């Protein structure tokens, strides 16, 4: 994707699909603080309304559209609103997702289908709708917020992991098509580790206890900063949290080891000790939860050194240069002492 030039954030119009809570809400707030005109879309109108008010109170510009991303017509309305209000679209951020915590045999075909409609087709709809607008704007960025389960599947998450794997396949093909055509549109896949958002509270849950992500947890800001970087830098992949990168490496280099470890520890890592309460989740109706942070704030890491280096290439190059210089100095000193 070299050669693609993306506008500075203060000159952009960005759509955040799945923006009423969690990662999407934090992303919208940070984009607006950077001067981006923001269009936020989700099913939770109350959450969207408070988000736009918060952005405007801080001096930013934003509008919202109520939208279920599985509905193509509603997604088209989001794009029409963005163009009518702000004139164009530069970046489309796909965040919206739902989850079912259940073993494979107790996940119904309807639940598999619903997760594919939201998590996969929601991103398909968004990017297909966005592409003509990005072309008219002279280029832009498509940013997919996926999951560590894009590359490694956790037990009890077969439907969720399948939907995220499907997204990654679509992104790879789309990216190559755009490159082949010389289209100046970047396609970025962001793969977060476990993030402290209300996502776990709001999923459909068939366990006896409340679910959680596999630790370590990271703050939503770690993912939001990846989105801001992808909106201005045509990068292929970003891992939000070093744990997500470790998951990817383990799956690709030692898949049998991943099988053994996750068979033994995967389910306990996804379970709290609290009894399950609202088990239906937000699969078909919005939860009304508009928080950025979830229930694991005491466990969440506010910063990821790995991700910070990935989004600060100059610092990364200086670190490598320093490391190589240090190795060179040690080698030269040993050579002199041996002589």
Automatic annotation (TrEMBL):
Keyword terms: Oxidoreductase
Family indicated by similarity: Belongs to the short-chain dehydrogenases/reductases (SDR) family.
Name by which UniProt lists this protein: Short-subunit dehydrogenase
PROSITE patterns given in the database record: ADH_SHORT
Domain Ketoreductase: 12-196
GO cellular component, one term: membrane
GO MF entries: oxidoreductase activity
Entry-linked SMART domains: PKS_KR
Oxidoreductase found in the keyword field: yes
Origin superkingdom: Bacteria
Keyword Oxidoreductase: yes
Xref: Pfam families: adh_short
């Amino acid at each position: 994707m070299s050669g693609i030039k993306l506008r500075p954030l203060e000159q952009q119009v960005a759509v955040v699909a799945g923006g009423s809570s969690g990662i999407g809400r934090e992303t919208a707030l940070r984009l607006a603080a950077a001067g981006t005109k923001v269009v936020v879309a989700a099913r939770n109108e109350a959450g969207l309304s408070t988000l736009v008010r918060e952005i405007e109170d801080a001096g930013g510009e934003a509008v919202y559209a109520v939208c279920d991303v599985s509905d193509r017509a509603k997604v088209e309305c989001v794009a029409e609103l963005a163009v009518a209000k702000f004139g164009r679209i530069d970046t489309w951020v796909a965040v919206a997702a739902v989850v079912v915590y259940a073993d494979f045999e107790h996940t119904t075909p309807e639940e598999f289908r619903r997760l594919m409609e939201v998590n996969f087709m929601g991103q398909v709809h968004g990017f297909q709708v966005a592409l003509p607008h990005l072309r008219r704007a002279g280029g832009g960025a498509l940013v997919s917020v996926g999951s560590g389960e894009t590359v490694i599947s956790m037990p009890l998450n077969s439907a969720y992991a399948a939907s995220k794997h499907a997204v990654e396949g679509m992104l790879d093909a789309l990216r190559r098509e755009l490159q082949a055509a010389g289209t100046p549109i970047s396609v970025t896949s962001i793969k977060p580790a476990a993030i402290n958002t209300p996502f776990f509270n709001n999923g459909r849950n068939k366990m006896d206890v409340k679910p959680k992500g596999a630790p370590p947890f990271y703050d939503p800001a770690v993912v939001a900063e990846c989105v801001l970087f992808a909106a201005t830098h045509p990068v292929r992949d970003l891992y939000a949290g070093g744990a997500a990168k470790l998951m990817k490496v383990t799956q690709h280099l030692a898949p049998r080891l991943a099988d053994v470890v996750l068979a033994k520890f995967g389910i306990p890592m996804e379970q709290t000790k609290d009894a399950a309460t609202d088990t239906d989740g937000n699969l078909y109706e919005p939860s009304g939860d508009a928080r950025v942070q979830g229930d694991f704030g005491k466990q969440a890491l506010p910063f990821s050194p790995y991700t910070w280096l990935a989004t600060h290439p100059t610092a990364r190059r200086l670190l490598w240069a320093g490391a190589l210089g240090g190795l060179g100095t040690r080698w030269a000193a040993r050579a002199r002492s041996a002589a």
